[in-house]
């Protein structure tokens, strides 16, 4: 069995499977979940993303956040 390249459809399917596994990790949150944890609106989370004040994990088409990394980044930003 030779290794054959993946088709675009197979790559998309693989990316979705990986994204699902990443989402299942307890530390990774979506935008709405992060906003709720921080007690802010989703537009505030989007602004923090745009200003590169919080780290973002891009998995396929999903935007995820490692809550520990976000809290550390916000703590560092507040000390400056």
Strands, helices and their partners?
Blueprint: H1 8-24, E1 28-29, H2 31-38, H3 42-50, E2 57-59, E3 62-66, H4 67-79
Antiparallel strand pairs: 1-3, 2-3
Helix pairs in contact: 2-3
Pfam families: HTH_17
InterPro entries: DNA-bd_dom_put_sf, HTH_17, SinI_DNA-bd, WH-like_DNA-bd_sf
GO molecular function, one term: DNA binding
State the end-to-end distance: 57 Å
| Record field, number of beta strands | 3
SSE string: HEHHEEH
Strand order of the largest sheet: 1-3-2
Low confidence ranges: none
Broad structural category: alpha+beta
Average pLDDT score: 87
Helicity level, as a percent range?
A: 55-70%
Instruction: Tell me the Rg in angstroms.
Output: 16 Å
Helix segment count? 4
What percentage of amino acids are in beta strands? 5-15%
Instruction: Specify the biggest β-sheet.
Output: 3 strands, antiparallel
- Based on Cα principal axes, name the global outline: elongated
Organism: Rosistilla ulvae
GO molecular function, one term: DNA binding
InterPro entries: DNA-bd_dom_put_sf, HTH_17, SinI_DNA-bd, WH-like_DNA-bd_sf
Protein name: Helix-turn-helix domain protein
Give me some keywords for this one:
alpha+beta, 4 helices, three-stranded antiparallel β-sheet, 3 strands, 12% strand
Describe this structure in words.
It contains four helices and three strands. The chain has a three-stranded antiparallel sheet. The termini are far apart. The mean pLDDT is 87. The chain has a domain at 28-79. A hairpin with a 2-residue loop joins β2 (57-59) and β3. By secondary structure, it is an alpha+beta fold. The radius of gyration is 16 Å and the shape is elongated. The chain has helices spanning 8-24, 31-38, 42-50, 67-79; strands at residues 28-29, 57-59, 62-66.
């Amino acid at each position: 069995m030779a290794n054959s390249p993946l088709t675009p459809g197979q790559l998309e399917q693989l990316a979705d499977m990986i994204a699902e596994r990443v989402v299942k990790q307890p530390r990774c949150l979506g935008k709405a979940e992060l906003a709720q944890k921080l007690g802010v609106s989703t537009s505030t989370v989007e602004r923090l993303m745009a200003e590169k004040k919080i780290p973002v994990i891009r998995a396929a088409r999903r935007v995820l956040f490692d809550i520990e990394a976000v809290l550390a980044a916000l703590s560092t930003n507040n000390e400056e």
